[in-house]
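Morning!

As promised:
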Amino acid sequence: MTAEDTSTMSRTWYEIVLECLKNNNVRVVTYVPDKVLTPLINAIHADPFFDAFSTTREEEALGIVCGAWMAGTRATILMQTSGFATLPNALASLAQAYQIPVLMFISERGTMGEFNVGQALVCRTMRPILQASGIEHHTLSRLDEVEFITDRTIKQAFQTQESAALILSPLLTGGKVKKG
Amino acid sequence: MVQQADTSAGNQMSRYDVTSALVSRLGETDAVIGGIGNTNFDLCTVQDRGLNFYMLGSMGLAIPIALGVAIAQPNRRVIALEGDGSILMQLGVFGTVAKRGQANLGMIIMDNGVYQITGSQPTVTSSATDIAGVARACGIAHTATVTSVEEFGERLDGFLTLGQPWVIVARIDRSAARGETERRPIKIRDKFMKALTETA
């Protein structure tokens, strides 16, 4: 193991994601909260580099991200699986039609120990929607891959002006489980 | 069950005249985000400014887009124009704007009480729902509902220099829009971004 590998392994997934956002100058962070995202949301709020705030719907966040980008500021949306499922119209008719890069982090609910069948059913729509929409997406499941995939996906989104989604798997985050 | 009477059928002023009164008061660096359909059709027809952005879909997102521009460029005044049917899809954004106290953002709702472009089916503002009241309850302190162009101009003059977010609901009639916008999104986007850069 190299020194670089050691430093990667000693950091949590959310510390790495936060650093990738900073390194790529993504300053505005919008979110509709999720239990799994809480440590990332807390770390972002604690860092004065970011302007972070919650919105009432994911669509609202998407509009804000598009406006900010056109005005020269990079922004992102944090959400959970069910929130992503509310976005296809806004993604197609705003982000994709106008070629505005919308960077999304989606905490994956509905699989690997889900206790709520509603989440499980919504989860099965997520990748097919991303696929059908032609949106670049990757699943973050291994800590040693988080930095590379996140950094490269952010760069590609802004350089190509195409939206991208990073799915945070329970394999990485631990997910949300109910005892019993 | 008794349905409430339509309170918007007697509205007197046109969207075009309200939009003209707005555009005549804009400064050279003010950005305007026009919501889908008739709202941005009349905005474009009154004056196709470089700092106008026209939505083609994403119903309800004019205020969120305007908020994003306002956050990115806090020294620029940004105004969102939205229809009643559109804002009813995204009422929560008033709370987000209020929470942030977004000083450089104003919001104008063109309220004719109907989904005019789809065949004038009534919206809930024609009978039961008061958009300015919703905005106030969401925490927007400065709101007005106006029924004449003169009143619109007076309230706008007061609000434009406030340095706090505001909402004006213009109770407009159901006259048709006088034109249409460009339909190529990339062209709309590029023109808007170029104007934002040139007037930064």
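Chain A is about 50% helix and 20% strand.

Hope this helps with the figure draft.
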